[in-house]
From TrEMBL:
The lineage of its organism: Bacteria, Pseudomonadati, Bacteroidota, Flavobacteriia, Flavobacteriales. Pfam families: SusD-like_2. InterPro entries: SusD-like_2, TPR-like_helical_dom_sf. This is Starch-binding associating with outer membrane.
Length: 474
């Protein structure tokens, strides 16, 4: 009886394994994903998630807003993300999906139109990644299904400057778009609706941004002057690399979907209050609300990093504006804009990297920033309150760029690290010895899943310290 049972099991096993692949293959399922779906997914998922990340955690680091509770991150314990504060998986997931798109564009001539956007998006997301963390897995990353799931860390310098890096991918992306002669259109493009010239302008604006970011380490003047002379970057708000949120779910701004208690956790920061009030800047009414305990149009900010146990009343401080909750149809997921481009060019002109007129570029940045935020530009704002010659010119340029980028708080923090402006405050109850952090820490899951490479990277950053500057940071 036992012998018969063993033979029966053997027959069943052989019979099952012989046709296993055929039986377990769904003949109705697609074997590859359509590139149009991938492009749409990468743009939307990255834009939607990083807008939320940038506005919650990024805006705390950049001191646009203050957290009343769940505020360990605001007190600079960056290893304790709460309502945001862990962009690592967002970045790697979208870089992985974008790598699939890039591979498809190179493997099939029918998909060649996707190569340019895929390279530009790879450069854009890789720059965000390395500017936040420093050295990160890059050249061996995004390929876990084919090569390794424990990729080595690349230096930030290599990620920026090597073949296959940020600047090289922007060049290759522009070349691919300029040389494309096919008849198949770019579908799934929610930034430019298939307009390849828009992607070229986007890439050139990103080149300006990243050349300025590394300008303390590399002679960037010849490249910047060339881009400026060609005048083929984002020049108006109509050319911005953005997509619009809606007023209602599922495509509204994610912060609007939080329960009201979590939304009301964020209030105007004292840093932002003082800067906007000193400029008599009406954008305060777009970005924040008057305090609840005042009968007039009074705005009040709170110093970042309070000890939540001290207790404060939300009614005593200005909450976030209606554009971030009730009216998110007025809001964009912002990849790159004309206002940011002009502020970068104004800085480049000020430092002698290009031959442009600093003041006119600066003033154009301001006027387009007001237009972007749908706030009328006061008649004398540019010539009086925000005049370039009032104080330190570089500080004025960077401060105006900081205000304009109020939905991209990580960028505001990164540019503070690069330039020292605007002058951020020592926070109220620091958990980092009253030091403003200069990099994000590698997440705990990286230590667990990529331990050997993590250990080497952590050793270079004094034990994964948030106080060790990245390569370009002077």
């Amino acid at each position: 009886m036992r012998k018969f049972y063993n033979i029966f099991i053997l027959l069943v096993f052989v019979g099952c394994t012989r046709d296993f692949e055929e039986i377990n293959t769904n003949t109705n399922a697609p074997v590859t994903v359509q590139p149009s779906l991938l492009l749409r997914q990468v743009i939307y998922d990255y834009g939607e998630q990083m807008s939320y990340e940038g506005f919650t955690a990024g805006n705390l680091l950049g001191q646009y807003s203050t957290a009343l509770d769940f505020n360990l991150f605001d007190r600079h314990d960056l290893k304790s993300p709460q309502l945001g504060g862990n962009p690592w998986p967002i970045l790697y997931q979208n870089l992985r999906d974008n790598e699939i798109l890039l591979n498809l564009s190179q493997e099939n001539t029918a998909f060649a139109v996707y190569e340019g956007p895929a390279r530009i998006l790879k450069a854009y997301m890789a720059a965000t990644l390395t500017d936040l963390y420093g050295d990160v897995p890059y050249s061996e990353a995004f390929k876990g299904n084919a090569e390794t799931v424990t990729p080595a860390y690349d230096s930030q310098e290599a990620i920026y400057l090597d073949n296959g890096g940020i600047l090289n991918n922007l060049e290759l992306g522009i070349t691919a778009l300029e040389n494309y002669t096919g008849t198949i259109g770019l579908e799934g493009d929610i930034l430019y609706e298939g307009d390849l010239s828009g992607w070229i302008r986007f890439a050139n604006s990103l080149k300006i941004k990243y050349l300025m970011r590394i300008s303390a380490k590399v002679d960037v003047a010849p490249q910047l002057q060339s881009i400026f002379n060609e005048d083929n970057y984002i020049g108006t708000n109509m050319q911005n690399a953005i997509f619009n949120f809606t007023d209602g779910e599922p495509n509204n701004f994610r912060l609007a979907r939080l329960r009201i208690g979590d939304f009301n956790n964020y209030v105007l920061s004292e840093t932002m209050e003082d800067i906007l009030k000193a400029l008599n800047d009406p954008r305060i009414e777009r970005l924040y609300r008057p305090i609840g305990n005042a009968g007039d149009n009074t705005f009040k900010g709170l110093l970042n990093g309070i000890d939540a146990s001290t207790g404060v009343s939300v009614a005593d401080y200005s909450l976030l504006g209606t554009i971030f909750r009730e009216n998110t149809g007025l809001l964009d997921a912002n990849f790159m804009t004309s206002m940011e481009t002009h502020f970068l060019l104004a800085e480049a002109a000020l430092k002698g990297y290009i031959s442009g007129n600093t003041e006119s570029l600066y003033q154009m940045g301001i006027s387009q920033a007001f237009e972007y935020w749908q706030v009328p530009l006061p008649e004398n704002y540019i010539m009086n309150n925000a005049a370039l010659e009032n104080g330190v010119e570089l500080e004025n340029i960077i401060t105006q760029k900081w205000i304009a980028n109020a939905i991209n708080g990580y960028d505001g923090w990164i540019e503070y690290r690069r330039t020292g402006f605007p002058q951020l405050r020592t926070i109220s109850a620091s958990l980092n010895n009253n030091i403003i952090p200069v990099r994000m820490p590698y997440p705990a899951e990286e230590e667990a899943l990529n331990s050997n490479n993590y250990a080497e990277a952590a050793n270079k950053t004094d034990g994964n310290s948030i106080n060790v500057p990245v390569w370009w940071d002077e």
